[in-house]
Amino acid sequence: MIPSRNHAAPSGVFSPYRAGALAGVSGYKLGQWARYGFIKPTLYRGRPANLYGFQDVAEAIVVHWLLDRGFSYDQIHGAINAARVEHPNWPLLTAPLSVAQHAVEGDPTGAIVLKVRKGVYVDTGRGSQITLRPSLLVHARDMLQRGGWLADELGLMRIEVDPTKLAGAPTVRGRRWPVERVAQLATDDEGAAILVDDYGLEDRDIDESCRWVRAAMSL
Q1: CB contact set of 130 (below 8 Å; sequence gap of 6+)
Q2: The pTM is what?
Q3: Peptide bond into 108 cis (omega under 30)
Q4: 104: number of CA atoms within 13 Å, CB side?
Q5: Do 156 and 129 share a structural domain?
Q6: Does 5 reside within a domain?
Q7: Total tally of structural domains belonging to the chain
Q8: What CATH code is carried by the domain that includes residue 201?
Q9: 116: which DSSP letter?
Q10: Each residue of 11-60: pLDDT tens digit?
Q11: 151-181 burial, b if ≥16 CB within 10 A, otherwise e?
């Protein structure tokens, strides 16, 4: 067992399945990333299952985002290892990283830059320049608080993740109703009616909870 690396803020407790769903990947894929050193489970590592904190899941969102933008595993791994020298705790969140992609349209090459120079352009050393573009690195926590990767991808607005509430379980915004419980009760008309009539949930709360859960189950 390994302790959390930072007790300064509540971190939530996320199983591989839930952490993966929030990062938009399967729990198995998340476990692969942990084995390869892209992220670290800071609450517990080992059998029967790793346990991830809020910051761990936010870093997984960053890894997913970088992969979606064409960065290779080697590029990401190199950036993480370099950043960990001075930022050992959650380097993708705390190090001064910036994503740089080639200015020439259609060129997939890019770099993850540790220290950004002043100005718009940085010389790559390949006889050309790259444009530094705003990245989601600084927004990973915000995305996670809004329901993670799946909520962002599906445009869901009624889901939140608060590490101080229900151990970080995705919930209906402003309520203490886990989306998984809402989806479970809403499998029949009677359950859906109870959620609306007895607990004051709105139809959109129920619909978005069900959509989030279906997407998580399909990963």
Answers
A1: 100, 101, 102, 103, 110, 111, 121, 122, 124
A2: 0.84
A3: no
A4: 9
A5: no
A6: no
A7: 2
A8: 1.10.10.10
A9: P
A10: 689 999 999 999 999 999 999 999 999 999 999 998 889 999 999 999 99
A11: bbeeebebbbbbbeebebbbbbeeeebbbbb
